[in-house]
Amino acid sequence: MRSIWKGSIAFGLVNVPVKVYTATEDHDIRFHQVHAKDGGRIKYDRVCTVCGQSVPYTDIDKAYESPDGDKVVLTDEDFAKLPVAEKHEIPVLQFVPSDQIDPILFDKSYYLEPDSSTPKAYVLLATTLEEVERTALVNFTLRQKTRLAALRVRDGVLVLQTLLWPDEVRSVDFESLDGVAQPKPQEIKMAETLVEAMSDDFDPDQFTDEYQIELKRLLDEAIASGTGTVPEQPEMVPSGMDAEVVDLVAALQRSLEASGRRTAGGDGAAKTEPKKAAKKTAAKSSKSAAESTTSKSAASKSAASKSAASKSTAKKAPAKKTAKKTAARKGA
């Protein structure tokens, strides 16, 4: 559970720090209003009856109309001037016998948890209330609304129950009960016998909400069989929507589409550029390799020519020596 309020109980000169929690919860199955034709959700709009325009919540004030037809508008500043109890204090007004509080006055219930490292004052107050069998009447302010409340103990935990003001309980006077004869003693005795036969200790766990159980079963069967299920439908733009808003939505849509195209085009160009660069690099590499091969071939040829020349020179040298020897012999 999550606390909805923090403060302290003012018990004489003793302050009891507490946190407040909602004590009850509603388990009823919730339904949405839909269009019977297509299952579309029904929405409500705050429309001014004078200008016919939709009014945002921030521009709404509260008005009071008297029985004579006089209308007065109050703002948040006006409400702030009203006297209210301390927002974070629950003052104890008095202690009264518990059986004197008519159950019809009880409204909402809240659990109080000690909000201090030493909850001795909390335990003291709870124990005292159980011993004296009395209920503390307090003032409790929640959401800018002050209530009279009853502070009592339930299973060792302090419980605060807001009470209706006396003028909030209607007085009743049914004419159909006027002049009705009192029941006879024999009738009262038979009724008491029937009451005695049906008497038992109260155990809330013995009772269940049959309607909610059957409703849940009906919904589960409808979902399982597909009966009455409504497929999701795209919501239409309200016909009363401002044309400027519609144009803005359309412009944003076109901008998103254009942005998507630019992104796709940019990616393609980026992919093409590396390919072209790769081709150029490959061409340069091939050209360099060819030039390198040509240079190597030329160098090889040059080396081969020099080698051949050397061999030729080596062969011609012995021929000259032979010629000299022949000439010498002839001279002799």
Structure, explained:
- This protein is of the alpha+beta class and about 325 residues long.
- About 40% of the residues lie in helices and about 20% in strands.
- It has 5 helices and 9 strands.
- The protein has helices at about 75-80, 120-130, 185-195, 210-225, 245-330; strands spanning about 5-10, 15-20, 60-65, 70-75, 90-95, 105-115, 135-140, 145-155, 155-165.
- The strands form 2 sheets. Strands 1-2-6-9-8-7-5 form a 7-stranded mixed beta barrel. Strands 3-4 form a two-stranded antiparallel ribbon.
- The longest helix has about 90 residues, at about 245-330.
- The radius of gyration is 50 Å and the shape is extended.
- The relative contact order is 0.08.
- Residues about 270-330 have low confidence and may be disordered.
Concise overview:
The chain has 332 residues and is α+β, with helices and mostly antiparallel strands.
Please give a handful of descriptors for the protein shown.
alpha+beta; 332 residues; extended; disordered C terminus; two-stranded antiparallel sheet; 41% helix; 5 helices; seven-stranded mixed beta barrel
Rounded Rg: 50 Å
**CA-to-CA gap between the ends?**
142 Å
Strand adjacency order, main sheet: 1-2-6-9-8-7-5
Number of helices: 5
Q: Mean of the pLDDT scores?
A: 79
Low-confidence stretches: 268-332
Percent of residues in helices comes to 40-55%
Strand content: 15-25%
Helix/strand structural class:
alpha+beta
Quick one: how many beta strands? 9
| Biggest sheet character | 7 strands, mixed, barrel
Coarse shape: extended
- Order of secondary-structure elements: EEEEHEEHEEEHHH
